[in-house]
Every structure is written in C-alpha cells, then in structure tokens.
Amino acid sequence: MQPSRLIIGITGASGAAYGVRVLQLLQNTDVETHLIVSKWGVRTLAEETGMTLEQVQRLAAFHYGSLDQAAAISSGSFVTDGMAICPCSVRTLGAIAHGFGDSLVHRAADVILKERRKLVVVVRETPLSDIHLENMLKLSRMGAVILPPVPAFYKRPETLDDIVEDTAVRVLDQLGIHIDSPRRWQSEPSAGVADPVMRRK
Fold first, then answer.
1. Mean pLDDT by 10 residues, the chain (201 residues)
2. Which domain holds residue 114?
3. What is the DSSP string of the chain?
4. Is residue 195 part of a domain?
5. What's the pTM value of the predicted model, to 2 decimals?
6. CATH no. for residue 127?
C-alpha cells in the first residue's frame, strides 16, 4: 500500500505562515509531503516569517525547484492524494484556471485537476476583482476547493498563531487528514441565552 502523499505549494501571496504551519502539522504523521515554493514565495517567506527556503524545505519529505518540470509530481502517474496551494496568489490562481503550466506549482495543480484528485486553493487577496472571482468559480467547477484564510472569531483566537493554525487545520480537513488540535471548535452551551422569540407586530 502506498503512503499518503500530499503536494504543498507556497506562492508569493501574503500568508506564507499558513503553508509553513501545514507542513509542521504533517511532520509527525505518516503523510509524505512534496513541497514546491515559487520564486516569489521564497521572498514572502523571508519577509513574513524570517525563515529561509532551506529551513522550510527541511519540514517536507521531498522538495523541488519552482521550475523543475521534470519532477515526479509533474506526472499524473505519480499518485498523490491531493495538493494544497497555501497561500495561493491570484497570479497562480489565474495560471491554473487557464492551463498555463509555466512553473511546477502550475503544472502540479494541472495534474491534480486532470487526474480528478483534490486541489485546495487558499486564495489570499482582497478586495477581489471580477477576474479573481471568475477564476475561482472556474476552478470550483473543476472540483477544486476554494478556501480563503478567513479567521473564525467565534473561537476567540488569542494570538496570530491561533488564527494560522485554525486555517491550516481546515486545509488538511479538506484533504481528508484530520489533525488533533486545540483550535478545533468545541461547542459549549451558553448560560442564560434563550432562543429568540418571534413576536407579532
């Protein structure tokens, strides 16, 4: 039986910490991780996390150059369980939606789509233009999951790490990997809160 394999792409959008946290959460699991960091993803990692490319690559089982079209993950015959692009720039979003495979992130995502595997796209941009929205709709109709990193304030996050982990856990949930995390929602009854009463005017 093949080990579980996931491709993780980190592109140049703000939010590099999300991709790093996904890799960290997978380190003590039996999931084999295959990492690609785009050219601008390397720059964003340095600006936002202070981590070098080499430090992030050490979190993954395998890693590839951003233009390495000969990498195993560029072929559909290399079986994986899916891919998360975390974060995903709108340039990457557009390239995948329109089939432009000029980088390994784009090509690997194209393979995931053509093989009908799970693609999770953590689009990080605001506000969104018609172009962005149309590209997201196009990918959604192809079966991709569009997962913007929206904070869940009902969980009352206390730190930035809480917010990052919440999104990272949700990304992995979409790929069928359920990590135990204190950030999972545990509903508790609210004392003294009654159901709303409908009143006639």
1. 84 97 95 97 95 97 95 96 98 96 95 97 97 98 97 91 95 93 66 52 49
2. 5-174
3. -PPPEEEEEE-SSS-HHHHHHHHHHHTTSSPEEEEEE-HHHHHHHHHHH---HHHHHTTSSEEE-TT-TTSGGGSTTS--SEEEEEEE-HHHHHHHHTT---SHHHHHHHHHHHTT-EEEEEE--SSPPHHHHHHHHHHHHTT-EE------GGG---SHHHHHHHHHHHHHHHTT-----TTS----PPTT-PPP-----
4. no
5. 0.90
6. 3.40.50.1950
